[in-house]
């Protein structure tokens, strides 16, 4: 589950720019004292408030972890069995995209492990999946409800009824214990290792099974599901975070980079809390009930103030879907609603048509790996010697390190499939390497714009993508107040060539020992997801983004992708 991004934690530094004329030098000199705050106070800043923050909405576009056309082959995979593992899932989007990447006429058996250590995240995933996949509702209606359960702060009465039904089915036995006079006695007998396991029939030939900590279920998740706060109270709690007056500067900086229509769409979503297109009513007469899956037991908003569903999906594809449904690009959150609904609908139909089993576990990824290696994590489904064709590890390596991730997961990789791969995502490495980002280039060194062709090119190329003449901007006597200046500095890393710094980081992680220790190798060219945003799949490791102005805007501005993020693929040794 992605944690705090490198944009959230940039260190301050002193950037010294000079560009020829004395007047220009003086003007730039005025920036030296404020440039640090400009680059460190991006609009998201630090999480607002002292509550426990949960990352309920992914901050990177959904990934199809199969990409069969670049790996096993589509025709060759029609009757192939696949085992897929999402070791720190966060939400369900990557699983949905991956299942939707199976052949249309798939006849194999697909087994999926969806794991996350957060009790709240796991509970949300279970209830959203059950609402989407249970027998009864047509896939399209179920998908619409699932979209609102995942992203909307308020629900229609039909959505609330569905959520109540799912809670009763999945957690009814737990609820009855909670209401029993023997509750305290029951809880006192539970040990931290006690696991609650259940299985539910779903569409098609598969099943949905779950395994959660019995102790943790009786904590925040159950209290949230039983909460009684009103819509007005919950909406106020959402506004206190998402529209906080203390954060208006951060929001305004973000909004300054958006197209006017997208600003309106963004603010409408923030105000209503409902993901829907402009033509539909998002008022309290239609969306009457708070979504219990987005508020704490006391009614507090759970996510960070920079949480944005648009960051979870490929904006280019979102806009294409919206256009197919007759929406204008201006209604970008409406486009997102139809895109997610379409993905969820297709996912539900495939589960109904194919043989797909899904197991949701609530474990630390290291613990999950250990149980798999012992054959103790749902052996009825995965066997006593599990072998996964894809293992997606999110950004665990940012905190545990690449060697630790590979040590845990290489042991359960399918060695019989030459296309099997462990996927590693890095988002915070830039903070550890001087020169890896524009801000770190200034750490301890004065950058001279006149004498540094690279810096000059970076600033001018980024400005061009934003429709700004940087030299004209520099002649602005009050440049530090210019929103466009913030936008340029915030996105200058997009075209930064930091391949050497990244290789240094990998070397410091002991990447050269991977073949010997884990019988794996880093793929020189990715076949699942591009190494960095804005480059093509299969591009050289040192490739820089090659994007149009529209793509730049969709990926980095409205899409919010971090230029420093990297995707690594570790496949079997000897297989390129």
Automatic annotation (TrEMBL):
InterPro entries: DUF4470. It comes from the Eukaryota. Residues 56-154 form the DUF4470 domain. It holds the Pfam family DUF4470. This is DUF4470 domain-containing protein.
């Amino acid at each position: 589950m992605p944690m705090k991004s490198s944009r959230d934690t940039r260190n301050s530094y002193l950037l010294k720019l000079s560009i020829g004329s004395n007047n220009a030098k003086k003007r730039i000199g005025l920036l030296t004292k404020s440039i640090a705050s400009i680059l460190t106070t991006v609009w998201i800043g630090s999480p607002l408030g002292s509550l426990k923050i949960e990352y309920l909405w992914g901050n990177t576009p959904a990934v199809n972890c199969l990409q069969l056309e670049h790996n096993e082959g589509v025709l060759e995979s029609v009757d192939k069995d696949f085992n897929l593992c999402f070791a720190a899932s966060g939400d369900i989007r990557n699983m949905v995209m991956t299942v939707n990447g199976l052949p249309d006429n798939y006849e194999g058996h697909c087994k999926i492990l969806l794991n996350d250590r957060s009790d709240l995240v796991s509970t949300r995933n279970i209830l959203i999946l059950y609402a989407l996949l249970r027998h009864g509702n047509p896939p399209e209606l179920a998908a619409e409800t699932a979209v609102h359960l995942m992203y909307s702060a308020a629900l229609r009465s039909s959505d609330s009824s569905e959520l109540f039904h799912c809670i009763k089915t999945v957690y009814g036995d737990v609820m009855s214990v909670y209401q029993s006079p023997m509750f305290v006695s029951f809880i006192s007998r539970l040990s931290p290792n006690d696991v609650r396991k259940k299985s539910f029939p779903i569409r098609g030939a598969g099943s949905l099974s779950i395994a959660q900590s019995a102790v943790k279920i009786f904590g925040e998740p159950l209290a949230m599901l039983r909460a009684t706060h009103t819509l007005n109270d919950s909406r106020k709690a959402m506004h206190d975070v998402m529209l906080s007056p203390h954060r208006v500067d951060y929001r305004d900086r973000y909004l300054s980079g958006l197209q006017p229509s997208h600003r309106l769409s963004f603010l409408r979503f923030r105000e209503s809390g409902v993901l829907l297109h402009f033509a539909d009513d998002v008022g309290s007469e239609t969306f009457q009930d708070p979504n219990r899956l987005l508020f704490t037991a006391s009614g507090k908003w759970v996510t960070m103030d920079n949480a944005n569903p648009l960051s979870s999906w490929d904006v280019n594809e979102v806009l294409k879907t919206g256009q197919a449904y007759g929406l204008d690009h201006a209604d970008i959150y409406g486009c997102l609603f139809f895109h997610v609904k379409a993905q969820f609908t297709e996912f539900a139909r495939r589960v109904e048509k194919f043989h797909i089993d899904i197991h949701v576990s609530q474990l630390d990824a290291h613990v999950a790996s250990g149980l798999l290696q012992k054959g103790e994590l749902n052996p009825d489904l995965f066997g006593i010697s599990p072998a996964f064709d894809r293992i997606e590890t999110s950004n665990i390596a940012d905190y545990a390190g690449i060697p630790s991730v590979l040590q845990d997961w290489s042991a359960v990789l399918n060695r019989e499939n030459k296309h099997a791969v462990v996927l590693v995502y890095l988002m915070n490495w830039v903070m550890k390497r001087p020169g890896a980002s524009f801000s770190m280039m200034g750490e301890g060194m004065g950058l001279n714009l006149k004498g540094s062709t690279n810096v000059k090119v970076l600033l001018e190329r980024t400005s061009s993508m934003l429709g700004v003449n940087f030299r004209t901007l520099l002649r602005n006597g009050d440049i530090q107040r210019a929103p466009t200046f913030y936008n340029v500095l915030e996105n200058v890393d997009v075209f930064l060539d930091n391949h050497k710094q990244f290789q240094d980081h990998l070397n410091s992680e002991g990447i050269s020992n991977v073949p010997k220790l884990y019988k794996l190798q880093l793929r020189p060219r990715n076949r699942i997801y591009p190494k960095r945003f804005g480059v093509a799949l299969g591009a050289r490791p040192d490739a820089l983004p090659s994007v149009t102005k529209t793509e730049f805007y969709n990926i980095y501005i409205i899409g919010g992708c971090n230029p420093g993020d990297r995707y690594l693929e570790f496949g079997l040794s000897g297989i390129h």
